[in-house]
Amino acid sequence: MIEENIRLAFENISANKLRSFLTMLGIIIGISSVITIITLGNSIKSETSKAMNDVANANDIACSMYAQTYEASQKYHLDQKFFKTLQAKYGDRITAISVTNSIPEPVKIRVNNHAASINLIGVTPAQFVMKKVELSAGRFPSGQDYTAGRPVMVITEKMADKLYGGPDKAIGQNIDIDTDTGYQMFTVVGVYYQTSNKKKSAVEISLTGEDTDQYDCYSDYKIIKSITHDEEINGFDVLAKEGEDADSFSKELEKFMKDYYKEAGEDVDIMVLAFSSVTGQINDVMGKITLIVALIAAISLLVGGIGVMNIMMVSITERTREIGTRKALGATDSQIKWQFISEAVILCLIGGIIGVLFGVLIGMLISKVANIRLAISTASILVSLGFSMAVGIFFGYYPAKKAAKMNPIDALRYE
Length: 415
Description:
This protein is an alpha+beta fold. The protein is 59% helix and 20% strand. The protein has helices at residues 2-15, 17-55, 70-75, 80-90, 126-130, 143-148, 157-164, 167-170, 202-208, 221-228, 246-260, 275-297, 299-318, 320-328, 333-370, 378-404, 408-413; strands spanning 60-67, 94-98, 100-102, 107-111, 114-123, 133-138, 152-156, 174-179, 182-194, 214-220, 235-240, 268-274. The strands form 2 sheets. Strands 3, 4, 5, 6, 7, 8, 9 and 10 form an 8-stranded mixed beta sheet that branches. It has a 4-stranded antiparallel beta sheet with strand order 2-11-1-12. Helix 2 (17-55) runs antiparallel to helix 13 and helix 2 (17-55) packs antiparallel against helix 16 (378-404). The longest helix has 39 residues, at 17-55. The radius of gyration is 33 Å and the shape is elongated. Residues 195-199 and 201-209 have low confidence and may be disordered.
């Protein structure tokens, strides 16, 4: 019986090709919209995760402490004693600890008649490992540079290209920085790029800011501290060892810091955040946005389903004598009903398949234009096809039931 119903369904669809296509159009638009949105949502999530992982290590944990009052800032601060205590307690679980500071405002420089704006950041050597910074030329500041307080600098590859004509030509060049205490000359010892040294997507550019003429340049922490005259340390990064659960470890570090500064009470605000949790939160938000937009797009499937019901009602009216003949030859109400339900389901399934193909093609086109990797969800395709079949059953049931309840004598007399 199933084979017979499928055969009759395809015969009727083939006999009315244009009408069948127009009926499927609502289903095609609905399914293609859903697939496109989910595909792009997954692609953006994947691209965001990769871009963030290129910027920092998944085991990176950011810790900060800010005094709420001037009196508290004078009494409670991150100092060598704190870091020694931290190292003694968690040294076997920590790969590195990094402290940074920076000149508050971007610094304007001019080299070879080219102007640029740089963010001068003072770091300890561990920072380059933690933030996945890789060299294009030269070297990172060494421990000897740090100990001696040498004014060295690591600049971006894009800055080296613009100001010097290439990374190799930038090594050894001097850059004068105008500070509050006078001019400070820095020597370029290295040129870096983030891990993904390629044409960046719109997502990566928005996260790294590499599409601007403002560059992040690294120097020695002590040198920058001598320029800013800022002895206060408000934050530091911890790189947990491989195998450590960064989220769980971040909670331990937060408790440690609160216990260490418990005398400060609410006068000190402590925050510890694992980089992996930030990535997870962003992906969670992106997933919810994608789902909501996909559900809105799925409303068009209901419109398509109403179109299917309408055309099935017209088809039944046109085929009243055929229904009467089948019933007169012994076809049961159940057989008639399933014949028309099968026709509605096949109509929606074909529309669903075409919609999936269009959705994937549109997703591929947009991802290529936006320069993001395509992430097709097999589950969403299967769910969409299943939903299209459900639409066929739901909206095909009433017309099919009406056909099944026809009186064969009245049906044969129908003109």
